[in-house]
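Question (not urgent): is this output format expected?
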Amino acid sequence: MNRRKTVIVCAAVVMIAAFSASLLSSREKPPAAPQKSAAQAPAQSAVDRGRYLVEDVAMCEECHTPRDAGGNLDESRRLQGAQIWIMPVHANPNWAMNAPALAGFGGYSDEQGAAVLEKGLGPNGVPIRQPMHIYHMNHADAQAIIAYLRSLSSAYPQ
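Got this back:
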């Protein structure tokens, strides 16, 4: 008899849950706000797009900003180049020990920057060294990053 009561109670709970769900789904929902893709956001400038890509997507600060004695990013020297703080698990003769300065993008042409971001080729035409990632960015994103980095020249004198 206990088992029969348990089955009845479980069935009742399932029916109540299903009924509640149908009531909730039958209520009129306000129309969702249309979401804009990156291509549909013409008000966003190239510099703003570049800032987003540098800070939130590629996270360039992690390697290109020096760290203090506690291992925290030194924001007063943001994107001014730094010693690489991560090391490979196995010896790697092609591992870069320093990340170059990016603020102001001094010393690099737009073409050299695009080659790094789009193809993974350094300014000398040789593949970039690890731990730098090869991003294979599209040309518009690469140009946005370059525009943002160039905009930092007044904030961070070379």
